Amino acid sequence: MTVGSLAIWQETATHEPSIGDALSFEDELVRRGAAVLPHARWSLYEHLIGVRDLLEAWEQPTHVRLAGLAHSVYATDRFTTSLFEASERDVVRRFIGADAERLAFLFGSIPRRDFFTQVRQLVDVRAHLHLLDRTETLCELTPAEIGNLLVLHAANAAEQVCRADGSPAPWLAIVSRHCALAKGRADVPPPIFHRGSVVISDEEERRVLAAYAAVTNCTTEPESDSLGALVACAKELPWVGEPAIVAAALLLALGEFGDARSLVAHGTATLRAWRAPWDKRLSFNHWLRLAQFVRAASGQRAPERTFIASRMQRILRNVGCLPDRILAQLDVLEALQDSGERNVLPSAELPARFSRYIAGFRNNRQRPRMNQYPGLTARPWHDAKSFALVRDLERLAPTIAMELHELKHELFHSESENIQRTGHWDVFMLYERGQRREDNARLCPQTIAAIERHRTVRSLAGLAYFSRLAAGTRVAPHYGPTNLRLRCHLGIDIPDRCGLTVGGETGSWQQGKCIVFDDSFRHEAWNLSDRDRIVLIVDLWHPDLSDDEVELLSGMHEYAVAHGSNLQRYFARNEAARRKTRFD
Fold this sequence. Notes:
Strand content: 5-15%
Number of helices: 23
Structural class: alpha+beta
Largest sheet: 8 strands, antiparallel
CATH architecture of the largest domain: Orthogonal Bundle
Radius of gyration: 27 Å
Shape: globular
CATH topology of the largest domain: Hypothetical protein af1432
Number of strands: 17
Number of domains: 4
């Protein structure tokens, strides 16, 4: 946001915050350095976004969610760097509204120890609270403000507290007490701990931490006593999902598929209620991927169960019981996917659509490239929020932007495709038709890691790259080569007066947000502003394709690339031989 636009905000009358205001506030956080300000294991920006998203998952009112987005911007008694001074409170109000700003200011300005001490002393949930803030100003808190502040503190702890390696640290007992105090006060009690009806003791938390550590710290298969203690804790202290998911995964190695299935169902439901991982060595989405594998594996029949058990035993012998290592091994073995469930063992029978597709090779003399796949949903625009990649890219948008802005301008080259344009269209390739551009990938480690975590097209059917449209550039209408993929754009540098049309429907980019469309439809793009427009482009397999279809198509693409390379070498050798013969 420019200084001029900020002044307009300051002069605008108080209004209810909109989605656009919240997005503008995110931009302002980035402008003030939140994306590069260290906070716990990540940046302050990522923490603020994480708390806001967690409050949304907990079904909190809009003003509480927006308070989560701003809860540390005035600094706190534990985080001493401020993005906004107290004199700028009007600026924050214009972005997120008066109610949200007041909660955020109270969160930062009232010492936590004083707040919790006095709240615990209140017997009547209808009573108000009077506290001094850091400037010795007396603040009166209504019951709803007390309750909503307690929810904010609970989300703040759940989002960030862990040990240096991401493993669980003690905080469950404290947060359970926060939720109990919030019951009857907060506008919406969060769903965790039965909406504040259950308080766990420090001793109970120590027991589950000890049982969990005893298993996950094993360098090979755990002792039966340790696994039994973890299973007991997962059943007796069902307040977090990870112990149940880990125990279920380990039970697969013992062939106890029934217990594994019931445990993973419980663990998944609990994890979804929290929406934040207790064990932060894996992200929320990665825990779901592990749980999905266990659920699919535990539903297999007898012949497959023997194979699964032996596979899990081998994994445990190789990497031990750390959940991130187990997940990585399953990923290497291609036993995971981002959504839905993968068959643990491949089927010998070809999918019906794939059979129809390859049947087209019988009479494909006019269209030998076979770019159109049968039976896929065809529409220009898709719901970006339905893709796990989108959620990951948007979470990492500030980091991806930093990696982009550190690239030297000359590392980009002109887009070489035969597409008409006016102006300049430059690209920085990460994946190019099945080839990983290693030199470029090393310059963007977080970006490439996000691309490789998901069901992206890394065969000859897809691309992943940064795309820069210079000021005044227009790309003529054209068609993508295949309907096998969808194209995801993450907005990074987005000026005004730029946009795109797909299938006759016009859309636009937003900074830090993704759009997803089918580029096999006729589409065009333009940048009529006076500065560059830059997006990250990543191709996704069409969501209608099953994992089996993706593997078969990827195999075909690898076959084509391998034979194409061999043909190039063959023709080169023959040409060299002809030249040698000609001149001998």
